[in-house]
Design a protein that fits this description.
This protein is α/β, with parallel strands linked by helices. Helices cover about 20% and strands about 25% of the residues. Helix 1 runs parallel beside helix 4. It is globular, with a radius of gyration of 16 Å.
Amino acid sequence: MATSDNVRLRQPPARASYRLFGQFGRSAEYNVITQYYDFGGSVQLTDLGGTYWIDNSTPPTNVTDATVQSEVLRALGQLGHVDGNTVYEVFLPPSSYASYGSSNSCGGPNLQFCAYHSNFVASGNDIKYASMPYPSCGGCRWPGWTDAQNFEHFACHETREAVTDPDGNGWWDRQGYEADDKCAWSPSPFVAGGYGYQYEWSNLNVGCVQTR
């Protein structure tokens, strides 16, 4: 359960959000999940810096999960390789919303989520990815935060969950909550080093913590 880097696709968030990944994988906020492990060992601190690729074509208003997967595959064609330890994150512009089945993000007719992560298999590779819609509605924004910080909040959430539960069969509790779900909005999200974060569930502390 390790991830080496993240690739930002389509319209990237503010540069501050991109810089988040340059330090996130070795931060105290990421270090909380090093207590989780599988048969391959514990989650390790790692470089999440990666690369981002900008797709300047006009995306659809309704970005379905199939569209996100297609965009990941398109980017992989540009990059020329697939890394099973990478989380490929697709950031959407404010003119689009994400849909997963009948559920939508900000801008859609049935707001049920702010972002999500998942996986699919292509050419024998297990590809981990996340859909990162623009946080354009009150249900996905924290008061007083910039757009970049709100993006960072969900990037923090989905990246850690893509590591602790990459294929939907990793860490989650009896209610079906993943580690970041348990602390998604309570306690209140916080800013550290200028970046927006949320608390993370810690089995060691039996509660939500900022850092380890």
